[in-house]
Amino acid sequence: MSDAEIITLSVMQEGRLGGSELSFHRMVKKDYQHLFPDLLSRSRYHRVQKSLHSKDLMGIQREILRLLMDRLRGSAAWPIVDSMPITIAESPRWRSARMSVWAAETGYSSSKRQFFLGFRLHALVSNSA
Predict the structure, then answer these.
(1) What is the pTM (predicted TM-score) of this model?
(2) Which residue in 20, 17, 18, 41 sits closest to 29, CA to CA?
(3) Any idea where the domains of the chain sit in the sequence?
(4) Alpha helices in 16-85 (DSSP H)
(5) Residue 77: which pLDDT band, with cuts at 50, 70 and 90?
(6) Of 88, 80, 85, 81, which is closest to residue 121 (Cα–Cα)?
(7) Residue 45: other Cβ atoms inside 10 A
(8) How far apart are CA 86 and CA 129, in angstroms?
């Protein structure tokens, strides 16, 4: 991979909210393989990215992000999506709980680090009027 490809992926990774480097690498491999046919293994990618950072080429990444933010700030609406679990029963009791609502499903709350029986509440907020 070229240095430009590594910097492009770094900009993509910085713009992505949350997630680990492993999940980012899996996403690039799955969805963007056609754009990055010479994608390095995750550990090799990390080493090259770290090497570029020590050469201060990541200053280029910061400048690209700054220019993108300046360009998008005036014209784009910034939607934010958030979700939270509405728990009927927590693990391990969810298997034996009597469901009063037939549509409840099992799920995992990463913020609480536990499985639950219930629903997910999703909220979409935007800065546009």
Answers:
(1) 0.48
(2) 41
(3) 3-73, 80-125
(4) 21-31, 42-54, 58-73
(5) low
(6) 85
(7) 21
(8) 29
